[in-house]
Amino acid sequence: MQASDSRALRDLEGLLGEQVPPVASFDFRHFGYREERGRVVDLELQGRELAGLPDSLGELSGLRSLHLNRNRLRSLPAFLSELRGLERLSLGGNALRELPDWVGGLPALRSLNLAGNPLDGLPGGLRNRPGLEELYLSELGLEELPDWIAGLARLRRLVLFGNRLRELPDWVCGLEDLQELTVGGNRLRELPARIGALGRMVELSAYSNQLELLPDSLAALGSLRELALQDNRLRRLPAGIGGLAWLEYLVLNGNELEALPESIVRLRRLKTLRLQANPWGVFPAEQESWLRGLAERGARIRR
Fold first, then answer.
1. Is the model's pLDDT at 290 over the cut of 90?
2. Homologous superfamily assigned to 130-303
3. Do 51 and 29 meet the contact criterion of CB atoms below 8 Å apart?
4. Is the pLDDT of residue 27 over 80?
5. Which residue among 52, 164, 217, 276 is the one 20 to 30 A from 66 at the CA level?
6. Average pLDDT for residues 203-228, to the nearest whole number?
């Protein structure tokens, strides 16, 4: 191992009072480092009660992934800006009140997790990161989304659960590469009318909001495999929902649904279907036959 990397690990172990183990892959403990060709490339230090970091971490020039979730960090040291190859930076569950501008200047950054920090605001410096692919902004008390997110043209995953959002701006529908959108646990009354424009969407989670109706364009999400809508106030589903040909996971429990659209029997790939806690009437014979067929193919159905 490179001398600078060995020194950084020794300093870190001195701070922690325990050895940082080498690992081939990370498990539920999220603790250790992974090495390639004598360089530390991944470092996971989650839940270690860290209030600071040794300066020598800035010398890990081969580091691609740094996970610092669930520590006690109040600020990010400037020497981390030297990690020019850093692709993933995970800072969830710390005590950060601000994010330094240099984070937006990390040239290789693709994934950023800021969830669960008492941030005073989201820095506009991130608008300069068009290569960002994953952004985790959960549990930040957000009441609206900053419009600079609209410029993240390569964004594939946007996680926003547990905020105070009352609406999603229409520009979200312009994030053409978006594959996963999680907005559960907010105060949304509706989804954008153009949400069907997100043709690469694979997973949409909008559980535990105040949704009453869904836009008809939802049925145009032809790549969708997971749709979580539990614990809302939905009274009907889009008539064309049967067009979601690849859908495997559909969760509708805890709404105000009395009937399913006729087209739903076209959903032949469902593996999970949850319908409980709705005021259902009698399902038509065709839908009962469809439900039996899903069950016979091994689908997990709760009514």
1. yes
2. Ribonuclease Inhibitor (3.80.10.10)
3. no
4. no
5. 164
6. 97
